[in-house]
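Researcher: Good morning. I'm working through a list of sequences from a screen, and I'd like to move beyond sequence-only analysis. For each chain I'm collecting a predicted structure so we can compare shapes side by side. This is the next one on the list. No need for commentary yet; just the structure.
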Amino acid sequence: MNEFGTGSAPGRDVDVAVVGAGQAGLSAAYHLRREALVPDRDFVVLDHAPRAGGAWQFRWPSLTYGRVHGMHALPGMELSGADAGRPSAEVVGGYFARYEEAFGLRVHRPVHVAAVREGEGGRLRVETSEGVYSARALINATGTWDRPFWPRYPGQETFRGRQLHTAQYAGPEEFAGLRVVVVGGGASGTQHLLEIAEVAEETTWVTRREPVWREGPFGEAEGRAAVALVEERVRRGLPPRSVVSVTGLPLDGALREARERGVLDRLPVFDRITPDGVAWDSGRVMEADVILWATGFRAALDHLAPLRLREPGGGIRMDGTRAVRDGRVQLVGYGPSASTVGANRAGRAAVREVLDVLGGARAAA
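Model: Good morning. Structure tokens for this chain:
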């Protein structure tokens, strides 16, 4: 046993450590294999989750595969024949498991990465629950699911009802007959709202900003423009915004019908929380049994803190997938590559950057 727990490989040297086995991490591992790097010899994939599937494995059961927007296949293996009525967690989790097996990626799980810090000889020291790895380069693909964002409002601790976050949402059934306030103007907020409105006594939707609805086609050019806006923020070292925050919400048939029924009549976010509900400075008061925070997630990057990658603006300044403050570190599934198609492209780009790092390190050795 060592200070980071029992493990079969403490002190192992690898060329590349991949942290996270969601869409971006698996894409990176695939491209490392394409470059003839061997899992568990040249690179290692470490994943915090208990099983294959990335964040998808934690999605609520009522989010069926047919309701998923924009799931993009991993490189080298299509996802075909999926039952649109099955939970997305099962469909995507099974697909990721088959993918890992097909390409022999040998993902280590569940493994917690506690810290990445400067090591010896220009290497990175990756401290994990199965021991310490020494890597020439790091591809970080930890996503956001482990860091749900909970806003703070006056009186929040006095609320006598239930508060939960999207990360804890298991479906609409538990809200039957209750008065529910849904907070958040993103895709999760509207999905929760539509489901809960079918069974709750009353729903109230509040958002900080007026929702932006998108109608009509959304093609490749529009997608590139939206990603470019997010990318500009990370180039400047600012915390990334979600892609949907700049694209708006697609107004499909279900949302259009819900809007006509008044389910999507939005109120500005409340000013404080009371023991029995929420209140606005205008004098409006709303009684509630549940407050559901569909307020998004933040990048799970605390383990990188010892490397001091953050800029004064709070984000990590990026050049493509490379962290500007440390070229050995690649971030994938972060900012503009947070979408599934973006994660695939970022995995490929990160491997190209890593090969440059490895080439330089080997030449200097």
